[in-house]
């Protein structure tokens, strides 16, 4: 705990057996109270590794529901366990758990209600092996999103995020997509509710075991990102209404 606030790390897992142990071993248990892993019907030994590591709370989807659905299960379970601060960490070791201290303290001391690890601040992305086409797409999408949404984030696509429970309770996550666009819908919901987001520089490690989506799905994701940003703009201008912002 920090300032009597219970901290839970959630791991949305899919085929993470090769990297789960390395990720788990770097979680700072001097402040983290519990870990929740949700397995999205992996085809490898993710569940076995999780049990061997002694992760207390392990949930398994009976079918592959998608990245967004995995996060929904993670947050529901964490809140049911009484979490005050929830850290979402990918178990593929793309993001270092060593930043959990910094992210959690910002929330525990009421500096910011949401903190994300940015691969774009500094040179962490390219130095860590992010494919050049993904880096360029990230920069263009972020530029357009900042214009449409009216914010100044360095990136909207990081998968390393920390939330206060008040933020998660305030969002209508059940209306969001079960796919990768969930992350962007969530950020727009956060801004819509008036919460601020802090960013910290995050080194990144890309490897053959890192989670990734192919070019075709990346294109679909990019189109979805722009669609969500336009929906947010139309909602704020009171021109249209969308379920995710209700």
From TrEMBL:
Lineage of source species: Bacteria, Pseudomonadati, Bacteroidota, Flavobacteriia, Flavobacteriales
Protein name: Glycosyltransferase family 2 protein
Alphabetical list of InterPro entries matching this protein: Glyco_trans_2-like, Glycosyltransferase_2, Nucleotide-diphossugar_trans
Species this protein is from: Lacinutrix neustonica
Location of the Glycosyltransferase 2-like domain: 9-169
Domain of life (superkingdom): Bacteria
Coiled-coil parts of chain: none
Pfam families noted in UniProt: Glycos_transf_2
